[in-house]
Design brief:
The protein is 57% helix and 19% strand. The protein is α+β, with helices and mostly antiparallel strands. The radius of gyration is 20 Å and the shape is globular.
Length: 178
Amino acid sequence: MGATRRINLIIDSQRLNTEVRKNMLINPYWISGFTDGEGTFYVGINKNSTMNVGYQVLPEFRIVQHKKDIALLHSIKKYFNCGVVRVNHDDRFELRIRSIEHINQIIIPHFEKYPLITQKKFDFIKFKKIINLINQEKHLEKDGLIKIIDISSQMNRKDKKKALEIKNNILGQDKVHA
């Protein structure tokens, strides 16, 4: 077999693999298992002077993959029927779901029905607590924001220097205004 024929077979195989992944039916248990290994429940806290307490809380569900698996991210997005697939950095892409409505109506019910089984289960439980506080608009109050920071600092990688700095800034504002 000639080199051109081998290259054409490789290209055809890659195209077929991409088409299969693009149109695959995804099992909900598989989604939970894949999330156990590759997903993240994340809560960002960013300075925002338009917010009552000066910070904005941005919860999100995210899965990051190499660009060669972007079709898989699109399949998961299609399964959930929400989110955006975008560049994460370099040659990695992410499926990101930030809408509180989608988190409340799609993401949380999915993982309650099809539970996670690794340590990520505990991050999900903490994530739900934070979403519950947001639903009660506690993130708009200083005490609620501090509670969210305390919970989020126990999620994922536990070394949260930025969260501690934000908490200290919020607590320090009281001393300035007292």
